[in-house]
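fyi for ur records
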Amino acid sequence: MLFPLAWMAITAIAAAMVSLIIQAPLEAACHYLLKPQLISFGWLARAALVAIAGLILAPKLGARGAAIAQLLGFALGLVVLSYLVAVSFRSAARTEG
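which gave:
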């Protein structure tokens, strides 16, 4: 019984690391746009999403629910940061051109 739980934890950690690798260019884009506050907002959104999903899923599913909450928080936080960077690039393109 321990093996499936350990495998799920390793999978969740690997997915979180992939999310951070994908996030690195977005953070560089935030610095390019001179808007590092977008990075902080993305991390706050991610933390809030992990907390909310954890409060919902962890009591029902235990450690598996916490792992799923972490994965959902990372994925949705990445979507939020991607959206913020895209909007910032669009507004920067309008002001320059």
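Helices lie at 2-32, 37-61, 63-96. thats all i got for now
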